[in-house]
TrEMBL record:
This is STAS domain-containing protein. PROSITE patterns: STAS (PS50801). One of its GO terms (molecular function) is anti-sigma factor antagonist activity. The lineage of its organism: Bacteria, Pseudomonadati, Acidobacteriota, Terriglobia, Terriglobales. Residues 22-120 form the STAS domain. It comes from Tunturiibacter psychrotolerans.
Length: 120
């Protein structure tokens, strides 16, 4: 099992792909979503405004408060414009962060992208 320090050293890569339904975009993140990794893609992330954005975190081992803040800011903006943000594939570490910060009451999480797409 990777240690926290080795997780933090991993780069963050991302890709946007169309979902199965029109107006849905899947953002696949690979690597940790942290303060040091979000600068490379946060503006691109914010500029994507599909009706439904599903963030696939199945290959993201760790998220810090900056990563959570980025997702929450996107969520607030999306909600105020009638759009949705859904999370998919969160691991136990990320689920714990969401619960500890009470964000799990706001951000909807699903075990997979397929489950997220089937929810609407």
């Amino acid at each position: 099992m990777p240690t926290l320090s080795t997780m933090l050293d991993q780069p963050l890569t991302h890709s946007f792909t169309p979902g199965k339904r029109e107006g849905t975009t899947i953002l696949k993140l690979v690597g940790p979503l942290t303060l040091s990794s979000i600068f490379g893609f946060q503006n691109e992330f914010r500029s994507h405004t599909p009706q439904v954005m599903i963030v696939d975190l199945s290959e993201s081992p760790y998220m810090d408060s900056a990563g959570l803040g980025l997702l929450m800011n996107y969520y607030v903006s999306a909600e105020s414009h009638g759009r949705k943000l859904l999370l998919a594939g969160t691991n136990q570490r990320i689920d714990s962060l969401l619960e500890m910060t009470k964000v799990h009451k706001v951000l909807k999480t699903f075990p997979s992208v397929e489950a997220a797409e089937a929810s609407f």
